Amino acid sequence: MSPLTIPPALQAPLDDISSSLRRFYVDEFQLRHAPALLPGRAVLDVGGTRLHKRGVFNADALAGRVTYLNLLADKAPHVLADAAALPFAPALFDVVICSELMEHIPQPQPVLAEVFRALRPGGTLLINVPFLFRLHGDPYDFARYTDTWWQMTLARTGFTDITIERQGAFWSVLVDMLREWLHQQHKQKRLRYTGRVLRPLMARLKRRALHQDSQPQVRQHPIFGSYTTGFGILCRKPPAPPPD
What we know:
CATH superfamily of the domain at 20-169 and 228-236: Vaccinia Virus protein VP39
CATH topology of the domain at 20-169 and 228-236: Rossmann fold
C-alpha cells in the first residue's frame, strides 16, 4: 500500500480533526482488500458492530452475507457470544474480520483457534490491531503485540500465507498524538479560530505524515521505521488436501 494513493472515501476523514490516522489506516486496509475477498462470500465480523460504525468501511456493501458477533448487546450483533467460544459449526465462513478487536481480549490465542475452526479451508482472516495508539476500553484494553508475535502465533494456530503490514511509521504516530491533543483542546474550547486555522493545519499534517511514512528512507530506518500505529494482517487457512 502507498499512503500517497488516498481512496476518495478517505479524503473527508483526513480533513476531520476528530478522525485519527489510525482509523485511516484501518479503513484503507479494509477497503483495499475487501473488494477481492467479500463479494458473494459468507463473512463473519467478530467484534463488529451493525450500528454506528466507526470509519467508512462497511462490509455489508460488498459481502453476500455478513454475520456480526459481539459480546456487547449495544453493538446490535446478530449473535451475542464470546469470541473464544464461537457458536458456529466448523468451516462455515469464507472470510472472518477481526478489526480493532484483539487488544480487548486478554488471551487472543483461543479466539484465533476458534476463528480457524470457523473458517472454511482456503478461507481468509483479516485483522487490524493497534500498536502505538492510546488505550481505549471496550470495555477493557489489555495488550499490544508486535508483528513478530503475530507472525509466530498465527503460524502456530495453523494459518499460512501470513502478510503483516505496518500501518504508518514515526510521523503517523507523532501526528496522531498531536491531533489528539489539539482535538481535546478544541473540545474544551481552549483554542480559537478552529475552522479557519486548526482544521486545515491538521489536514496538512496528516497528509504530510502519510507522505513521509511512505518513503523508503523512513520505512527502512532502524529508528523511524520501528514506530507504527498498528498492523494490518491477512492470512489464510490452508486449503483442504486433494482426495486420494
